[in-house]
Design goal:
This protein is of the alpha/beta class. It contains nine helices and 17 strands. The chain has helices at 34-41, 64-78, 95-104, 128-141, 222-229, 248-258, 283-288, 299-312, 316-327, and strands at 2-4, 8-16, 21-24, 27-30, 47-57, 85-89, 112-115, 147-151, 154-157, 162-163, 172-173, 181-184, 187-190, 210-214, 234-239, 262-267, 292-293. A hairpin with a 2-residue loop joins strand 12 and strand 13. Helix 1 (34-41) packs across helix 4. The radius of gyration is 20 Å and the shape is globular. This is asparaginase. Its EC number is 3.5.1.1.
Length: 344
């Protein structure tokens, strides 16, 4: 265990979300700048914060290309050796996606901390100031934790952490894991560090289209076929149970894979791993048809893994193998870019 107080220098990257919102008419809209958010929270004594306003948007409206821009901004901030860590303020709707994407490419011992709010700053019981203060403290003091999500006094590893309540202030957590630490009165306690995987090199080019299709009782593969027809290079199939669908999906998955589409298999169940247990259209058959099981990652983060595999490989078989390594708990030492040959 390690407990520290915040000092040094942190870069705050503001992207909008509830933490940057105020009421306009009948609803809340992201409008506040990074300096305004920071002023409302207060900066811990001894900590210098440099602000970069990247976006001011509701995170439900963010595009994947904007998430890649955010990835680049994080790396630009960490290029300064005097920076102790980075905080990203982000809307809660897609925070889990952006945080996991950045984690796949994060190679630094310094932390990247995602935070936001469930209640906007002008709410009588806003969680925005406390979350931001806690995030700043973690960014200034934690080391070798990778990318983390800080909410409601808890520190979660980005991988596996999802939004698990629409409105409650304790809105984030890993249904299949536990927090790695916490923050109390500005002091950071790291109980354990998550497994750090070798990072990917920064990607080039626009994001490929990757769609999510959910299975349900009575479903047929018409939406999966529509995604392929629309140009999807990857598809995440959110099955039922441990990663199952009806038999009619198996041939469609095989057809998509044979056409070069990268298919990942997850589940709509909140916790637990995907497993090849059932036949008759279940995980056994879908995996045999070429779908890659996602372990405990759910659809939004699995989609980020598919996008990253597509950005780093062009051969379909190599993309499938690369995705499997990204989703595995095994080290990723053999996953290297085609143009570089070195994991940074």
């Amino acid at each position: 265990m390690r407990q520290q107080e915040a000092t040094g220098q942190v870069v705050l990257i503001s992207t909008g979300g509830t933490i940057a919102s105020r009421r306009i008419g009948n609803g809340y809209t992201a409008e506040l700048s990074g300096p305004q958010i920071l002023k409302g929270a207060g900066v811990p004594d001894g900590l210098r914060v440099r602000v970069r306003d990247l976006f001011t948007a509701n995170s439900s409206a963010l595009t994947t290309d904007q998430q890649l821009i955010l990835l680049g901004a994080v790396h630009e901030a960490l290029a300064d050796d005097e920076v102790d860590g980075v905080v990203v303020t982000h809307g809660t709707d897609t925070l889990e996606e952006s945080a996991f994407l950045v984690d796949l490419y994060h190679h630094d011992s310094r932390p990247v901390v995602f935070t936001g709010a469930q209640r906007p700053p002008d709410h009588d019981e806003s969680d925005a100031p406390a979350n931001l203060r806690d995030a700043l403290a973690v960014a200034a003091t934690a080391r070798d934790v990778g990318v983390v999500v800080v909410f409601d006094g808890l520190v979660h590893a980005a991988r596996g952490t999802v939004k698990q309540h629409t409105l409650a202030v304790e809105g984030f957590g890993d249904p299949s894991g536990t927090p790695i630490g916490g923050v109390s009165e500005g002091r950071v306690l790291v109980r354990h560090r998550p497994l750090r995987r070798p990072s990917l090199p920064l990607p080039c080019g626009p994001a490929p289209r990757v769609d999510i299709v959910m299975h349900h009782a009575g479903a047929d593969p018409v939406l999966l076929r529509a995604a392929v027809a629309a140009g999807a290079q990857g598809i995440v199939l959110a099955g039922t149970g441990s990663g199952n669908a009806s038999p009619v999906f198996v041939d469609t998955v095989a057809e998509a894979v044979s056409a070069g589409v990268l298919v990942a298999l997850t589940t709509r169940v909140p916790a637990g791993p995907v497993a090849g247990i059932y036949s008759g259209g279940g995980g056994v058959d879908l995996i045999a048809a070429g779908a890659v099981p996602t372990g405990t990652l759910r659809a939004p983060q699995a989609r980020m893994a598919v996008i990253s595999a597509l950005l780093h490989r062009s051969d379909p078989a190599e993309r499938t193998a690369a995705l499997g390594r990204l989703l595995s708990d095994e080290p990723l030492a053999s996953l290297v870019p085609e143009t570089d040959g070195v994991l940074r």
